[in-house]
Amino acid sequence: MTSSPRGGGHRARRSVWRAPLLILLVSLLLPLLSAPPAAASASGTGTGETGSRGRGPAHGRSAIWSASLQGRHGTSPDVTVRNIARASVSATWLRVRIGNPYGDRPATFRSATIGLQRRVGEADLVPRSLRTLTFGGRARVTLAPGERVYSDPVPLRVSAQQNLAVSLYAPGAPVNDHTFPPPTPNPPGSFLSLPGDHTRDTGDASYPEQDRGLSAEPGYHPGQLWWVDVVDGRTPAAGAIVALGNSNTSGHNATGGGDRWTDLLARRINALPPHRQLAVANAGISGNTVSRRPNPYDPTGQCCGPPAPDRLEQDVLALAGARYMVLFEGTNDLGGGEFAPPAPAEQVIDAMREITERARARGLKVVGATLMPMCNAAGGAKEANRLAVNEFVRTGGLFDGVIDFDAAVRDPADPTRIRAEYEADCYHPNAAGHAAMAEAIDLGVFGLGRWEAGAARPGRAA
Prior knowledge:
Blueprint: H1 8-34, E1 60-66, E2 71-75, E3 80-86, E4 92-99, E5 107-109, E6 111-116, E7 131-132, E8 141-143, E9 148-150, E10 163-169, E11 174-178, E12 189-192, E13 219-222, E14 225-226, E15 228-235, E16 240-245, H2 247-250, H3 261-270, E17 279-284, H4 308-317, E18 322-328, H5 331-335, H6 345-361, E19 365-369, H7 381-395, E20 401-403, H8 405-409, E21 410-411, E22 414-418, H9 431-439
Helix pairs in contact: 3-9, 4-6, 6-7
Domain SGNH hydrolase-type esterase: 243-436
Protein name: Lysophospholipase L1
Pfam families: Lipase_GDSL_2 (PF13472)
């Protein structure tokens, strides 16, 4: 439409409409502008960014990494922890969940950031990747005992298999941690800084890189994480697989160089087109039990996390985008220990039924995994119970799919043991064993077709 050469009538008509339109717009926008930012709840329902919601659709929100917290160990000194996590799929608009689930007093986080780790084994960040994390619009947050919270989303893009660095400063807070001694500098792990708030440091001058093991000394700590247990984001992936397990999922003793089976599974899935991929979240805790019982290794309740049924909600069901759960627990129940006797097969199977029914009621498909050899005496009660559990997993009809880890790693000459080339100790596979476990998984149990990218693979039990 062309303007009138004189234009005065158009200006007059615009002025008549401008005032009421302005009043209407102000009345609509004022509540939005004046309202405080919505806090992201621990259930993962807060977003704060534009885009589609729900499970499955393109760029929906999904967990892309997890590492379950397992207990409370001491008080944080005046240091910053830089937790290192690896994204299993690409994502943006990232959120971080932090928690004080086992705290005996409130935990105050004075500052928090997220960035991209520049190199494995070093604390420095990719230039211009640092983002400040806020919680309900505030940089500082205090969590009561038992409380968890998601950060507000930040516009940081991470690629599949790229490492994230989540830095938290909470001196004096009870340390809620995830620990296991892994064999490599690959995640999970953390750097503890020299004294002070170094959350915004992009270099590594304040983060010593010497291996300090499981401790509160400045340096690198393989397998040790403080307070952070989930990272999620907007992703083209179709949701997430969550592996609920014990030390054979968390990766204890995976010696010999290499990643855990969950990390290797994620790499296999990354060969698929982005929209067909599923993220992989690791909810393994060393020493965990699948049934409700006293922990066989720790009477304090701070070693090995709550029994799987009691942590199922926070560690699996509450994760955004969760579509599949791999249930791979029972070894510690059947084996027993100093503080609890071996459990019978029926106790493990009943716990599997409860967990599966609860997950399925929330819309997840459940894949059961057989239990690997434990050096039990052939013909003894422990071995009979393990075999009974495995027979139930394979043929009981409870699960939507089965992964036969027992068949993948057992010694054909002595089925009570893991094959020598895969064995770290009687209960745990080494890195080669984890690789064999990952290769044994039929991706069809996750609706992804038998093998990725059409590659021919040897027939294995699945």
